[in-house]
Amino acid sequence: MVSLISSTPRPDPMLPRPFRVARAIRETADVVTLELEAQEGPPLAFLPGQFTMLYVFGVGEVPISISGDPHKPERLVHTIRRVGPVTEALCQLRKGDVLGVRGPFGSSWPLEQARGGDVVMVAGGIGLPPLRPAIYHLLRHRRNYGRVYLLYGARTPADLLFPKELQRWQHTLSHAPGASPVRVTVDRAEGRWDGAVGLVTELIPHLQLDPAHTTALMVGPEVMMRFTLAELRKRGVPEENLYLSMERNMKCAVGFCGHCQLGPHFVCKDGPVFAFPQVRDWIVRKEV
Questions:
Q1: Alpha-carbon torsion, ordered 136, 142, 145, 147, to 10 deg
Q2: What are the percentages of helix, strand and coil residues in the chain, rounded to 5?
């Protein structure tokens, strides 16, 4: 009898693999992108929307969404905002430093399901990096999708991430001559900024969409996602086509610790990408 169970042991999800920093890029005053290479074993394949746990030896670990190209797993890319001791240590890493990586973990963006229709991506602040792998996928398979929009909001022009890529995506994501697929707004204009000022949700009513065949992907502060969900529902986008990513209080990444429980769900196991109907009863509640 031939066994259908593989004799190859699976990697321990609790054991970090060593990765070396190949490149550290200062994006803004408090955001750094780390490009990592595996020290041993194969590259870490992942799906757009998934995350890893990054471990700084002697400091701790944090969940960070992968922000690189899923078709180029030899460079594992993470974009990190400095908000606490572990992210502070991550942002101080330099080329040649070694850190631990667990993963990838979690659910992914429904890019296959979205084929043939329009796609709207909405990002607030540090929410753009988790969407970047999806953008790379859409660019690689551009003919399989209809209109594609990226709506991106930041606090100030100085907080905008990937400005060169934003300009390039304006042309490569376009579905027609003169179309404007990338739309950027800031809360507060500074310097020579002559773009839009206001909430990212204010960009939604101006989009040309086929609502019944539109899939929306969103990442950002929960209050932003609540208003984005409301605006897209007003446009007629079906609730089951609305997806959001939540990295809420994740600690262990495998559902053991319970820190990230959201109703009946564990964000690390059942998310971080959720369809709106899965979390409707919790995401619509205002913070207290």
A1: 90
A2: 25, 30, 45
User: Contact 252/258 with Cβ under 8 angstroms?
Assistant: no
Residue 96, token pair as written in the block: 């040649």
Domain ranges for the chain:
17-105, 118-245
What is the tens place of the pLDDT at every residue in 52-69? 999 999 999 999 999 999
Q: Tell me whether domains 17-105 and 118-245 share a fold.
A: no
DSSP code, position 126? G
Sign of CA dihedral 198, 202, 207, 211: positive
Q: Is 235 left (phi over 0), alpha (psi -120 to 50) or beta?
A: alpha
Written out in words, the top-level CATH class of the domain with range 118-245 is alpha beta
Amino acid (one-letter) located at 175: H
- Asked if pLDDT for residue 167 goes beyond 60, the answer is yes
The rounded distance, in Å, linking the Cα atoms of 222 and 213 is 25
Q: Which homologous superfamily is 17-105 in?
A: Translation factors (2.40.30.10)
Across 147-159, average pLDDT: 96
* Short-list 130, 185, 135, CA closest to 159: 185
Whole-prediction pTM value? Answer: 0.92
Q: Region 240-255: what's the mean pLDDT? A: 87
